[in-house]
Structures are given as C-alpha cells and as structure tokens.
Design goal:
The chain is an alpha/beta fold and about 325 residues long. The chain folds into two domains: about 200 residues, 3-Layer(aba) Sandwich (Rossmann fold); about 100 residues, Arc Repressor Mutant, subunit A (Orthogonal Bundle). Helix content is about 45%, strand content about 10%. The chain contains 15 helices and ten strands. The strands form three sheets. The chain has a six-stranded mixed β-sheet. A two-stranded antiparallel sheet has the order 3-4. Helix 12 packs antiparallel against helix 13 and helix 12 runs parallel beside helix 15. The longest helix is centred in the last third of the chain and has 19 residues. The radius of gyration is 23 Å and the shape is elongated. The C terminus is likely disordered. GO terms for molecular function: DNA-binding transcription factor activity; sequence-specific DNA binding. This is Helix-turn-helix domain-containing protein. It holds the Pfam family HTH_18. One of its GO terms (biological process) is positive regulation of metabolic process. Keywords: DNA-binding, Signal, Transcription, Transcription regulation.
Length: about 325
C-alpha cells in the first residue's frame, strides 16, 4: 500500500485538496482493495482552518516522514504570502530522501522550488504564474507547456484540473494504467487535452489607455495582410525605431513577434470554430503556405495545428502526459 501524506496549511486550496483525495479514494474503491493510504498532515499537527472548512489532520511533519509520497495541494496565487507562511516547511522538504516522492499541484511548485529541490530540474506550474516563477527561480527548467512534469522523484502539475492529471499519473504508476483510466472515466474527466500551452493566451494584456491601443486594433483587422515594420510605423505615425521601442515597452514583444502571436491566436479560433482546411486557415490569418503556418503554430503552441484540432474533436491521443 502506498502511503500518501497530503500537506495542509491555511493557504491550501480546498478544491485542490478534495480533488486529490477523491482520485485516490476512488482508485481504492474501484480496485476493491486499499492501494493508497491517505494521511493529512500540517506543520504542527493541529487542525487547519481553510476558507470553507476546518480540516482535521492525522499528525505533523514527523508522520509525513514515513510516507512514500508527499503531496502538496495548490496554495493559491499569493506567492509571497504562501512562501512566508510556510517558511518552516522549506528546509524540511529539502531534507527529504530521494526514495520519497514529492509532488506539487499548481502553485505549490513554488514551495518545492523555494526548498531548492528543483534546481537544475524540470517542473511546471500554472501558465499564469510562469513569468513570476522564472524570475524567482531561473535555475529551474520550467516547462510551462506541460500539464504535468516528472523529474526523478519530483513531480509537478499545471493549473487546476492538471492536478488530476498528476494524480491519475501516480495511480497508473503505483497501480496500473487501466485503473487510472477507470478513475478518469468515473470522474468524467478528459485526459486527452494536449498540453497546458493550449490554455494560455498568446497575447499580452494591453491597457485601453496604452499609446499602442489604436495600432493594435488596426492589427486585429488587418493581421491577414502582408505587414512589415515600415507599414506598421507608417500606421503609427512614427519611425520604425520609435515603434520598436514602444512595442517593447508596452507588450514585451517586438512587432514581428506580436503579429505572429496574433495570427496564431486567430488560427486557434478558426480551428475550434469551423472545418476549413489548414491551407485555408493559413491563408486567412496571413501565411503564404501551410508549412510556415504549421512551423510558427508549433513554436508557439507546442503542437501542430492538426494535433490541436484533433484534441478539440476528441481524437485519441496518449492517455496521460509524460
């Protein structure tokens, strides 16, 4: 029987905790035998007050030291607060032996990274936290496009429901893949969603009062046309050099990169809304040929346009991300 210690703190997200517990308890039920033993732990062994519930625990971190797997449910997006309130956890995590698996759901990847365990390792977290994670932990190889990531005994998952992908992966790893499939079916969960990158917006959010707002609105209407820096500068009534500076300041991108992201964003919408051919969509959003379109699409989305469309249509792919 695999012993799993679920770490609970005041910042624990209720839905993340309950989702993990439901998955492993359901695996036991469907297998008709106890494959997974769940124990709830807190820093001091005392019950924890969450936003919507008071969670009783089975013990403190000493109990978790006997577990085969330590699971950190999501702790929300207030990263500074979370790290400060869980400062005592970090050195304890750093001392865990390699024989003990450690897994983080969503934002709790910050706890694993702050302990130093992820240095030089691959990891993922919620796509919206990518910039903050990279700035704080540049030594971690962040693979933000992945729904889940496993590097040795360390596992991490992306946002919200990706935590269930991680739990299913663990069920398949420590029991069998058929049981993981049964759990996914019982939870009416689609484990064929592709990569996390399909959920992340490609374009940065721009304020309405941005000096670039008129130009970006024009680009929305003309992105399918042949556009170069000179034409954009003419439309913005400034020099190309000035435009490059303004673009970088307001979007963090060059005009060329912004245009590519705009075109691929429009292509994603076209792929999800109608059955036009890839050649037709490529032309519609501004590419001269399908090959160029597919290359840029894969660079930005982590998958080909065809794979993106297949997932939307429910075509079979590998059941669990690697």
């Amino acid at each position: 029987m695999l012993k799993i210690a679920l770490y609970i703190c005041p910042q624990t997200v209720c839905s993340s905790l309950s989702m993990a517990m439901d998955a492993f308890n359901l695996a036991n039920q469907l297998a008709a035998r106890p494959l997974f033993q769940l124990q709830r732990v807190s820093l001091d062994g005392q019950a924890v007050e969450l936003d919507f519930a008071r969670i009783a625990v089975d013990g403190d971190l000493r109990l978790a030291e006997q577990a085969d797997l330590i699971l950190l449910p999501a702790t929300g997006s207030a990263i500074e607060r979370n790290l400060a309130h869980n400062a005592a956890l970090l050195p304890w995590l750093a001392q865990r032996p390699p024989a003990q698996q450690l897994a983080s759901l969503c934002s709790s990847a910050f706890l694993l990274a702050a302990s130093g365990l992820l240095d030089g390792r691959r990891a993922t977290t919620h796509w919206a936290l990518a910039r903050q994670f990279r700035q704080r932990f540049p030594q971690v190889e962040l693979q933000i496009e992945q729904l889940l990531c496993e590097d040795g005994h360390l596992l991490s998952s992306g946002g919200a429901h990706a935590g269930l992908d991680l739990c299913l992966h663990l069920i398949g790893q420590h029991a069998d893949n058929e049981l993981a499939r049964q759990v996914a079916n019982a939870l009416v969960f689609d484990s064929q969603r592709g990569q996390q990158s399909r959920f992340a917006p490609l374009l940065p959010e721009i304020r309405r009062d941005s000096p670039l707002a008129p130009l970006l609105q024009w680009l929305q209407a003309h992105h399918g046309e042949a556009i170069d820096l000179a034409r954009l500068a003419q439309q913005a009534h400034c020099s190309p050099r000035t435009l490059l500076r303004r673009f970088k300041e307001n979007t963090g991108l060059t005009p060329h990169d912004y245009l590519q992201r705009l075109r691929i964003t429009q292509a994603q919408r076209a792929l999800s809304q109608h059955s036009a051919s890839l050649e037709q969509i490529a032309t519609q959003v501004g590419y001269a040929d399908r090959a160029t379109f597919a290359k840029v699409f894969k660079q930005l989305c982590g998958e080909t346009p065809g794979a993106f469309r297949k997932v939307l249509r429910g075509a079979p792919e590998s059941r669990l991300p690697e």
